[in-house]
Design brief:
Blueprint (H helix, E strand, L loop, with lengths): L2 E6 L10 H10 L2 E7 L3 H13 L3 E5 L28 H10 L6 E8 L3 H4 L2 H18 L3 E6 L2 H8 L6 E4 L5 H9 L3 E4 L7 H9 L5 E3 L19 H12 L3 H16 L2
Parallel strand pairs: 1-2, 2-3, 3-4, 4-5, 5-6, 6-7, 7-8
């Protein structure tokens, strides 16, 4: 089988001590491609370095919606957010991505996030930045990996204006929005947390196999609560999809590999 993890964060602090082992674990589970997604200048460059170090790692350059706000709006001590955010100029980073377009396989993760109170009030600013990145992705003819937490409808409405290959990462929207995305030809990447979240089982039931992909969002969204997630766990997602679709693991893996090749052309 050929497995693929279309969205992970291998540069994360939780992989600093044993990334070689994590990559070996992925290989042992037949993972042939891991896409490591940046969210800001620092992680974009880290994703690029990882893609140069490991043959199975591909880079995706992104601008996380909250990170992209920091140079535009004044937020004192943002509450509850789980990591430090460095200020940067969005246009400068888009210029860097444009210059390094041949070194990335996708643009992402990008999108909208209305989850954090300090940031959700800046919806128009988020939308403006989102559209800037989408315009660049359209120009570069790159697929986009979309983050849309508590902003699913706004994200879809904006995406519908562009001619892009769209991957909805960890999509948590309601059934009507899943259906709308399917009708638009969007892809939905399914994380290993499907083992313990009914929503993702429902999503897999609704989305044709030809529009499904596998991701881990490693180190997040583990199949086991409290454990670090890693790319090898896409095998868990394949098993769950196979059960739901009443197909063999081999059939599911083959189709998802075809889907990923169609989208990312690796």
């Amino acid at each position: 089988m050929n497995l693929v993890d279309v969205h992970s964060h291998l540069e994360h602090e939780r992989f600093k001590k044993d990334l070689d082992k994590v990559i070996d674990n992925a290989r042992s589970k037949c993972v042939k491609v891991i896409i490591s997604s940046g969210v800001n200048p620092e992680t974009n460059r880290a994703a690029l370095k990882l893609s140069e170090k490991y043959d199975i790692v591909k880079a995706s350059f992104g601008l996380y919606p909250i990170d992209a706000l920091m140079n535009e709006v004044k937020i004192e001590n943002p509450s509850d957010f789980t990591r430090n955010i460095e200020k940067f100029d969005v246009d400068d980073e888009l210029g860097w991505i444009d210059k390094n377009k041949d070194k990335c396989i996708a643009i992402g993760e990008i999108g909208l996030d209305y989850n954090w109170p300090d940031f959700s009030v800046f919806k128009e600013e988020q939308k403006r930045n989102f559209e800037k990145v989408l315009k660049l992705a359209e120009k570069l003819d790159k697929p986009v990996v979309i983050h849309s937490r508590k902003a699913e409808q706004d994200a879809i409405e904006i995406l519908e204006k562009y001619r892009l290959k769209v991957i909805m990462h960890c999509f948590s929207g309601k059934k009507s929005l899943i259906k709308r995305g399917v009708e638009k030809g969007f892809y939905f990447s399914v994380p290993p947390v499907i083992t313990r979240l009914l929503h993702f089982k429902t999503l897999v039931e609704m989305v044709p196999l030809e529009q499904l992909l596998t991701e881990t969002d490693a180190p997040y969204l583990s199949p086991v609560a409290g454990e670090r997630n890693e790319p090898a766990n896409v095998a868990v997602t394949i098993e769950e999809i196979a059960k739901i679709k009443k197909l063999s693991k081999e059939e599911v893996a083959e189709q998802i590999w075809k889907n990923a090749n169609k989208v990312f052309k690796f």
